[in-house]
Known about the structure:
single chain; 8-stranded antiparallel β-barrel; 1 helix
Amino acid sequence: MMKTNxxxxxxxxxxxxxxxxxxxxxxxxxxxxxxxxxGAEAITLLGKxxxxxxxxxxxxxxxxxxxxxxxxxxxTTGKVTEEDAHIAYQxxxxxxxxxxxxxxxxxxxxxVIDTEKGTVTAYLSYGNTQVSSGRSGELVKGKFEFIKN
Length: 149
């Protein structure tokens, strides 16, 4: 009698057990592991120097703290420019960072740096008297790597 009741119980409850298992697996897959998960160590930009290689120039950037960086660019002709910039710095997760700053000449830089993939996507906005808004912009992509200070 006990075997029959157990088999009947299992036969009737397998859809519920299957659904519960599926929900648990789905929740586990959607959980944000970037904040404090064991084994995943966040890589910060702060206190480090990165090299960003764009098609038209290379930039060595010292991320001094969460409000200040120093950049030094070298273009394809060898011209060097450098400046300190006050920044908005926002980590998006353990390997993605959003930065924004306005340079002395009015160029506005907005970047997303992916330290895991070694990529940078930047939107540059600058003055342009040839357009009605007075500003133009362009999206540029580059490669990112940490270098020794």
